[in-house]
Amino acid sequence: MARDLSRYDPVWREAEPYMRARKNDVHIPLSFGWAQRLLDHYEDADRDICSLAILLHDIGWYSIDMDQIINEGFRGENFLQSDVRYLHESEGVRLGTEVLRATGWGETIIAAVCEIIDGHDTRPSPHHLNDSIVRDADKLWRFSVTGVAIACDWMDMTPHEYARRLRDQFDKLETEMGRNFAIAELKVTEKELQLHVI
Question: Which CATH number belongs to the domain containing residue 120 in this structure?
Answer without folding.
Answer: 1.10.3210.10
